[in-house]
Amino acid sequence: MASFGSSIREGVIVNLLDKPNVDNPGFKIKAITDCLDIEPAFSGSILKLTSWVSRYYLSSWGEALKCAAPAAIRTKQRQTIHLTATKDEIEKLKRRAKLQGRVLTELTNDGDLTINQLAKRVKKSSSSLRSVLALLQGKKLIDIRVNFRPNSQKKYATFVTLAKPISEIKQGMTSTLQRAPKQAEILHNLISGYNRLPISSAELLKTTNTSLTTLQALERKNLVELQSIEIIRNPWDSKLIEKTEPLSLNSDQINAVAEIHRAIEANLPQTFLLHGVTGSGKTEVYLQIIATVLNKKEGAIILIPEISLTPQTVSRFVGRFGENVAVLHSRLSDGERYDQWQKVRSGEA
Predict the structure, then answer these.
(1) Cα(237)–Cα(241) distance, integer angstroms
(2) H/E element, 225
(3) Given 137, 149, 261, 338, which is the most exposed site by the fewest CB atoms within 10 A?
(4) 218 with 135, same domain?
(5) DSSP state, 151?
(6) Structural domain of 257
(7) Where do transmembrane segments lie in this chain (predicted)?
């Protein structure tokens, strides 16, 4: 993040220099105010690609980079109003300017507020309130702060496991849980389902018809452990997809696989056209060639002509390659798109 005039703008660091490379003495170097990502958002190859795109299509590099980043990883701006006035200043202003005084009073009572929140409290429109806020800011009675946060973030869920060996848990259950049948029920459930631990706390509480308070009581007794685990938002249900193994190929498929395989091994990019009616086995050729590519620690991109064909295609590829598949299309939620993009960026897919 860097300041431009009276606003803060989001940007991308594309290079690091030992000293400023500015020939025009009229230019001013500004400091970066904040860094939003711990890891680089773009690889070196993507920076090169977007730089070429900007030159070829006569656009700015920033516009090309924006196209390369899904909306889910971009940030949204949030302005909050922070009170800096003293009690005496507020009391004096109440007598001279009622609306300004009401604004400061609301900030005193509720702390930092957004413009929309503040407008509702003083029963004014956000647009009409901005002029009042500008006056208060000019008097140094408030501070307008700008925060940036991603459109989407990683999703976490609470999972539960036993904090001690089963033998120790059973020994303590008789003496410590005689008067806590709900806590005992949770422990019985965890012990009987030990092989599938950790288990989602939501699923556990639903199964045992107990509350989070009961679970937290067990945690305080050091009988269970609560873990925060990242949840990957896949746009498919893995439980509904059966794992498949490579099929035996007919002579035409064998010839196609061999021809494409030779080009891959020789590192000679070529275009191949598989000719065949629906159900003739073209997809199996794709799957076996992609398996070869993945064994070389490389990746493959599958383009589908229509979103409506996505479910059946995803089913075939996830069934063969499991969670190493990522799906990107326009009907994903921001959360799904964020997780799928992260899978590709990290090399998981």
Answers:
(1) 7
(2) strand 224-231
(3) 149
(4) no
(5) S
(6) 238-346
(7) none
Distances (CA, A) of 91 to 17, 142, 143: 52, 15, 18
| Amino acid present at 225 | E
Joined tokens for residue 176: 């410590």
Predicted local confidence at residue 316, as pLDDT: 95
Angle at 106 between CA 100 and CA 108, to 5 degrees: 105
Position 327 scores a pLDDT of 95
In this structure, the chain runs to a length of 349
Cα angle vertex 127, ends 121, 131, to 5°?
Answer: 90
> At 323, which CATH number?
3.40.50.300
The phi and psi torsions of 156 (rounded to 5 degrees) equal: -120, 150
Q: Mean pLDDT in each 10-residue stretch from start to end of the chain (349 residues)?
A: 78 85 76 80 91 96 88 76 89 86 88 89 88 90 82 89 88 72 90 91 93 93 93 89 94 96 91 92 96 93 92 94 92 90 87
Domain identity same for 83 and 146 = yes
Same domain, 290 and 242: yes
CATH number assigned to the domain comprising residue 128 = 1.10.10
Residues 244 and 341 reside in one and the same domain: yes
DSSP 8-state symbol, 309: G
DSSP single-letter state for residue 32: B
Assess whether 65 and 94 both reside in one domain. Answer: no
Phi, psi dihedral angles at 7 (to 5 degrees):
-120, 170
Separation CA 39–CA 150 (nearest Å):
14
Residue 239 sits at φ, ψ, to 5 deg, of -65, -25
Kindly state whether residues 52 and 90 are assigned to the same domain. no
Among candidate residues 118, 134, 150, the one where a domain is terminated: 150
